[in-house]
Specification:
By secondary structure, the protein is an alpha+beta fold. The chain has ten helices and six strands. The chain has a two-stranded antiparallel ribbon with strand order 1-2. Strands 3-4 form a two-stranded antiparallel ribbon. A two-stranded antiparallel sheet has the order 5-6. A hairpin with a 2-residue loop joins strand 3 and strand 4.
Length: 279
């Protein structure tokens, strides 16, 4: 039995876990706004601890998404598109220049870029796109280092690759998360921020959360087909630029992307005695 599939009464599907990741990320980013610079205060530390749930949940579902996708190329393209869109949002949100090669060498773009690179590397190696093994390793290494300026840097790429190799073994995946986060924390402690290094301990909270993962999308179970009846894949993004050359003149460019792939809504016979719908 897949260790990632929860047999406890409480279980969480992928949609619920993604909501948890989004909430944790929102809390973390708002903490950055109201408490910039990772101050050593109880409240921002606690909020940043919650925010550490986001990255490992994202890594976990990149592994799941790549494994289950029916079209790896389209999956890569979507991640690449989101990496581009989120770069603009990341730069505007944190007040950094759009050019990732200008300014510092760390945190120049969002974590979406390392996620995209990780999937590209998985695809190159799974499908042996490059036949020569040494050349394939060289290309993979260069791709890994290309994620260095991003949020979570090369660590996100290495963690995803390691987690994918141990897919189905949650403890093994957790070990990959711990060792790569520890390495990241070690660098942060000596070269970036000792407080941030301490906050990274919060990734340990992801283990009990992922233990409740039931390996399914959706909420309704079809007992005849023995699978979820309302699986769905949905993603979207918005991008907006405003330029006000004068107080009376405004240029506004808005782009909106929405992707939905959803099964039909489930129906079941209502039981008046139990006040529940059948499977």
């Amino acid at each position: 039995m897949n260790e990632n599939t929860s047999t406890s009464k409480l279980s969480l599907n992928s949609n619920a876990l993604k909501v948890i990741a989004i909430i944790a990320m929102t809390i973390d980013h708002f903490t950055d706004i109201f408490y910039p610079g990772f101050p050593s205060l109880p409240l921002p530390l606690a909020l940043h601890f919650i925010g550490r749930l986001t990255a490992p949940i994202m890594w976990f579902f990149v592994c799941e998404g790549y494994y289950y996708t029916r079209d790896a190329i389209k999956y890569m393209k979507r991640l690449g598109l989101f990496a581009v869109i989120s770069h603009f949002a990341y730069c505007f949100g944190f007040g950094i220049r759009l050019n990732p090669f200008a300014g510092g060498i760390l945190n120049r773009t969002s974590v979406m870029y390392p996620l995209f690179i990780a999937v590209v590397i998985l695809y190159i190696n799974d499908h042996e796109v490059i036949k020569n093994k040494k050349l394939r390793m060289l290309v993979s290494t260069l791709l890994i280092f290309s994620a260095f300026p991003a949020d979570w840097s090369c660590i996100a790429v290495m963690a995803i690759i390691g987690m994918y190799e141990k897919r189905g073994n949650l403890k093994g995946q957790m070990w990959e998360i711990i060792q790569w986060t520890f390495f990241y924390g070690l660098i942060s402690f000596f070269f970036v921020s000792k407080t941030y290094a301490l906050i990274l301990v919060g990734v340990l909270m992801v283990y009990p959360v992922l233990k409740f993962y039931n390996g399914q999308r959706g909420f309704f179970h079809n007992s005849f087909l023995d699978k979820r009846a309302d699986t769905s894949n949905e993603a979207g993004g918005k991008f907006r630029i405003m330029w006000m050359p004068t107080s009376r003149l405004t240029f506004d460019l808005t782009a909106d992307y929405q992707y939905v792939n959803q099964d039909a809504f489930p129906y079941g016979e209502y039981d008046n005695d139990t006040h529940e719908a059948s499977d």
